[in-house]
UniProtKB/TrEMBL annotation:
InterPro entries per record: P-loop_NTPase, Rab, Small_GTP-bd, Small_GTPase
TM regions (residue ranges): none
PROSITE patterns: RAB, RAS
CDD domains reported for this sequence: Rab
Keywords carried by this UniProt record: GTP-binding, Nucleotide-binding
Protein name in the entry: GTP-binding protein
Pfam families reported in the protein's UniProt record: Ras
Gene3D superfamilies, A to Z: P-loop containing nucleotide triphosphate hydrolases (3.40.50.300)
Molecular function per GO: GTP binding; GTPase activity
PANTHER family membership: RAS-RELATED PROTEIN RAB
Record bears the keyword GTP-binding: yes
Length: 146
């Protein structure tokens, strides 16, 4: 790990936005990754939250910028600026709310449209959250794997 206060001017920087409807678990996933903690309480993201994870791989300083985007439609105007310069992205849906799976089409549409204008090829990861709530699941495994 990098020591606090160490000069990171030579760090490789990567931008990773996370998209999905409100309440699918974007912030929870981010906090779990950064701090190893599961937060029981929920408070919606307003606009976008920005997190930074620093680490070393093969002797190289890495700076991972995680952009946790709010899922509400009123913040969608921010999407092109958030997508611009992304090195990868995560699209999330809630396995217990089928509509969040259906809405991935909208998220992917905006993402692809923005990438076309910027001539970017960005790897994407699809994440289904709340796997611990198996009894409430509404997105079948087969459908999620398509």
């Amino acid at each position: 790990m990098i020591e606090m206060g160490k000069n990171l001017t030579s760090a490789l920087q990567f931008k990773l936005p996370i998209f999905g409807d409100a309440g699918v678990g974007k912030t929870t996933l981010t906090h779990r990754y950064l701090h190893g903690l599961f937060k029981q309480s929920y408070h919606g993201t307003i606009g976008v939250d920005f997190f930074l994870k620093r680490f070393v791989i093969d002797g190289k300083n890495i700076s991972l910028q995680i952009w946790d985007f709010a899922g509400e439609a009123k913040f969608r105007f921010l999407l092109p600026g958030i997508i611009k310069g992304a090195h990868g992205t995560i699209f999330m849906f809630d396995l217990t709310r089928y509509v969040t799976f259906e809405n991935l089409t909208n998220w992917l549409g905006v993402f692809n449209k923005t990438n076309e204008t910027q001539d970017q090829k960005v790897p994407a990861l699809l994440v289904g959250s709340k796997t611990d709530l198996e009894g409430l699941r509404t997105v079948p495994s087969k459908e999620g794997k398509k």
